């Protein structure tokens, strides 16, 4: 299953952007898509979440594997 399942492409991007900080302008431009640029630039800047807070496990081995 997806880590960030969405109901649409935009919804999935929103879910991902809620978890990570917005990419830099250079990163967005490197995608080479005017559509992606317009969508990502409209996303609000949010603080980055830690992987530990996004993954529902108390298993230290699973968290170690992800890091």
TrEMBL record:
It comes from the Eukaryota. This is Uncharacterized protein. It comes from Teladorsagia circumcincta (Brown stomach worm).
């Amino acid at each position: 299953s997806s880590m960030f399942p969405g109901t649409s492409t935009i919804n999935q991007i929103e879910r991902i952007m809620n978890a990570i900080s917005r990419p830099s302008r250079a990163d967005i431009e490197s995608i080479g898509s005017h559509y992606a640029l317009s969508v990502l630039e409209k996303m609000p800047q949010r603080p980055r979440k830690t992987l530990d807070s996004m993954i529902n496990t108390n298993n230290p081995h699973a968290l170690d594997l992800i890091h």
